[in-house]
Structure formats: C-alpha cells, structure tokens
Amino acid sequence: MSERTKEILEILKVKYPDAHCELNFKTDFQLLVAVILSAQCTDKRVNIVTKPMFEKYPDPIDYATMPQEKLETLIHSCGFYHSKARSVISASTDIIEKFGGKVPEKMEDLLSLRGVGRKTANVVRSVAFGKSALAVDTHVFRVAHRLGLSDKPTPEGVEKDIVSQLSEDDLSVAHHLLIFHGRYVCHSRNPECGECPLTEYCEYIKG
C-alpha cells in the first residue's frame, strides 16, 4: 500500500466514519436496478423512485415481463428513462434465462448484462457480495485526480491506479470514502476547500 494513499484513507475514515452505499435496496437484484438508475442521477432521487417501485415490483420476473412504456413511466424522473428501462428489462430477462434468476457474482457475467459497466459491476460485487472491488464513478474520478491518486483519463485507468496503491481489504471502504468526499465536500463546482482535511495532499489547491 502506498504510504501517502494510506494516510489519505485514514484521514477520510475520521471525516466520514459512516461512509456507505446510500442507495436503498433489500436484495442483490434491487441494488443492481438502483445502480443502473443512478447513472447521471442522484441517489436521493433514485431512492424516491425505487421505494414504491420495489414494494410493488421486487423481483426480476416483474421487470422481464413489464412493458417498457410502463417502466419508463415509473422511472421517468431519473432521466434517460428510455435507455434505462431497456437496460433493466434486458438485464432482468438475462438474469432469469441465463443465471437462474439470481444476480451473478463474476465480473464477466455482470458485464454481459445490458446497462452494466465496470462501475455498476464493481458496486454490486462490493456492496451485495462483499468482494474487494473499487467502483469509479464521477465523484471517485474527480477526487482521485485532485488528490493526485491518478492522472489517467478513463475510469478504468483510475481504478487500476488506485487498486495498485491499496490492499484488497481497503478497496471497498475507499470507494465509499472517496464518494462521500466528492459528494459532500470536494464538489465538481465550488469545492468546500475550507472544510477539507486533505488540503496538504491536494493537487487542485496547488494549481
């Protein structure tokens, strides 16, 4: 583990002792759907949408047999509802037909589902299945660059850089800590640098 990265992680653990996945779900499948819906949408909005939806339609079969127009109506406020509805219906169908009705744990199997990229797959593997995985969303990507944890131009490149600096046991917690920091302090616009405990490590402040 990189000593510098370890120090950053320890400071973030103090700053965000309750860092966790903020999407609400009861099953692995519901987490998968919630993460698909969260693309370019806030977790808060996704939770508002999925609360009544998951109560009435909790399982893959509900979505595999649902008309796309109906699902689009349910998820409309999450944005990109046409493509997200297609992804949820297709993924649900494949989960039933190819994986016995259960969300697969292997990365390659998750990536075979429509609407599931490395970020979504890593969130599911980490949060649902307890695997050592680091998902790079827009918050992690931004914070990693500002803290000099990576200079790679792609999420996969950032993932590889951070993974190389951490032990497997710290990957999942690092994901949540970096997200919390990006979400609540290190905003894309107008970051609250006065509230940040990591200014001595920050390339952004140094210009």
Describe this structure in words.
The protein is mostly helical and 207 residues long. It has two domains: 3-20 and 133-206, Helix-hairpin-Helix base-excision DNA repair enzymes (C-terminal) (Endonuclease Iii, domain 2); 28-128, Endonuclease III, domain 1 (Orthogonal Bundle), CATH 1.10.340. Helix content is 59%, strand content 0%. It is elongated and about 55 Å long.
Q: Which tags fit this structure?
A:
207 residues, mainly alpha, single chain, Endonuclease Iii, domain 2, 59% helix, elongated, Endonuclease III, domain 1, 0% strand, 2 domains
Short description:
The chain has helices at 3-15, 28-37, 43-56, 60-64, 68-75, 81-99, 107-111, 118-128, 138-146, 155-165, 171-184, 203-206. The protein has 207 residues and is mainly alpha-helical.
Q: How is the main sheet built?
A: none
Give the class from helix and strand content and strand pairing.
mainly alpha
Unreliable runs: none
Instruction: Please state the second-level CATH architecture of the largest domain.
Output: Orthogonal Bundle
* Number of domain modules: 2
- In round numbers, the mean pLDDT is 96
